[in-house]
Write a structure and sequence with these properties.
Elements lengths: L10 H5 L5 H5 L1 H4 L1 H6 L2 E4 L4 E4 L2 H9 L4 E2 L12 H9 L16 H7 L6 H5 L2 H15 L4 E3 H6 L1 H11 L6 H16 L4 H27 L6 H11 L6 H32 L1 H9 L4 H11 L6 E5 L3 E3 L2 E3 L4 E4 L1 H4 L35 H18 L4 E2 L19 E3 L6 H5 L1
Parallel strand pairs: 2-8
Antiparallel strand pairs: 1-2, 3-5, 4-10, 5-8, 6-7, 9-10
Helix pairs in contact: 6-13, 9-19, 11-15, 12-13, 13-15, 14-15, 15-17, 15-19, 17-19
The structure holds protoporphyrin IX containing FE (HEM).
Length: 426
Amino acid sequence: EQSPTGCPVSKRAAAFDPFEDEYQQDPPDYLRWARDQEPVFYSPRLGYWVVSRYEDIKAIFRDNITFSPSIALEKITPTGPEANAVLDSYKYGMSRTLVNEDEPAHMPRRRLLMDPFTPEELAHHEPMVRQLVREYVDRFIDDGKADLVEQILWEVPLTVALHFLGVPEEDMDTLRKYSIAHTVNTWGRPKVEEQVEVAHAVGNFWQFAGKVLDKMRLDPDASGWMQYGLRKQKEHPDIVTDSYLHSMMMAGIVAAHETTANASANAIKLLLENPQVWQEICADPSLIPNAVEECLRHNGSVAAWRRIATKDAEVGAVKIPAGSKLLIVTSSANHDERHFSDADMVDIRRDNASDHLTFGYGAHQCMGKNLARMEMQIFLEEFTRRLPHMKLSPQRFSYLPNTSFRGPENLLVEWDTAQNPERKDR
Ligand code: HEM
């Protein structure tokens, strides 16, 4: 087999398959050989160039003109005519938001919509997040066991996301189903039978987003990032377009909640797998902010992102022809020894932990990163204080097969309720 530039494809490059469990379980370990031997390779199965090293990925993020983000939300596995007809029947029209918008349109829109993400604005949300986490923990603290994903880590970030966006609380289970369908549709490899079911959920999600937006237009002074966008549209209709708002309404729910839910589950899993580290942060909660960065580096919730070359380019001395698609495996970059010493070690005092690329980098770097960090910190503060004796239950972790959004589907933990600090205090 050959790459589009006529180079032979190595055995390992030919075998690369990000929909396999090996990639899901541990993407940086799955790509260790590539970081060492073939840091940029063509994957014939995927039809993408795969980039695995820190410096190469950062250089790609830095140049969003040569490496356009326009394919960031495109279906990685093209669907068949049946699924496409289903999507058409819902008038599905997901288009540019921010994450997949090119310059010069992107930056003015990003600037115009940035204010609700400033630390001062985010501080208003903190008491609500803490209250919510406490209430959810109250529900299971006397049970001695929990599935943290099912019982808190999914719903709290979803509630916070809806609150931040300004969406009235909806049926959580339906939104969870829609979000998973969106992830499979965008980054997965659904079988033909599954594609149709996914297409119905995605189509319904699109229509739901439109209806929510119509309702918001009736009360544009309400709080929320989407209402903020509606108000900005009045002054700058050319920058904040209807198509943007409808697409963002749908993509925003996923961007704001699934990423954070998965990141929180990955973080707690990683810390409980390293009990001495867990005990350290229980004893000294001031370690939590850097521990959150280290968890995002070591076991982040976005494993890989995408770009397309707008002209002939070079990545790590490999020639990439115009029109090539790139899978930039940020989780692999985060374990690159060339940038992070003892990269596989969990070191919550690491001084460059926040150099990780889990939030991307440059012009499109995640706008919600500080909201996500706040939620993760509050989860860790509440868990280390109220359940310091929590342990992982024996289990095998499963992941939704896809290239990018990664977190365990369940996270079973257990503890001795007689040892709950709250009981001992009484
Ligand atoms: C963009 C990851 C949480 C809103 C991005 C990008 C990544 C990412 C990888 C693309 C960066 C790039 O192309 O350079 C994450 C992770 C999160 C998280 C890992 C949680 C741990 C959130 C939250 C929100 C949010 C909570 C909203 C409330 C956005 C927006 C963009 C974005 C609006 C587009 C920015 C632009 O293109 O200018 N995020 N995200 N994200 N994220 Fe997040």
